[in-house]
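Recap from last week: sequence in, structure out.
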Amino acid sequence: MTIIWTIVLVLAVIAESMTTALVAVWFIPGAVLAIIFSALNFPLWAQLLAFFLSGLGMLFRVAFREKLFKTKIVPTNADSLIGKRAIVIEEIDNLASKGAVKVGAAVWSARSESGEPIEADAVVEVVAIEGVKLICKK
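Predicted structure tokens:
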């Protein structure tokens, strides 16, 4: 039976190496456990149980990781600008493709969310980022 489990292991490794979708990764630890159980002369039902429980355990561990270990995603870099206030330093005019805002010490190109021009020295809120431009609203 060890040969059959080794074939299952090799096929799972080959299938996994041909994709990036984690299609067969669940079978690899199960096949290794089944090989060990087979080498120790465990009965077939124990080998099958080890194979399936290991695969299911791996699947559930990955599937429920986010629920079990609730981690708060903290915006970094440019994402942290969304929701902040900015000062318009160059009139924002989407039709003329011009406009700039200052957020903290950084100056960014800006566009109006509504498409309406926003005058210089106005205070706006950053609602999104598209490429290197901040999308703002009054």
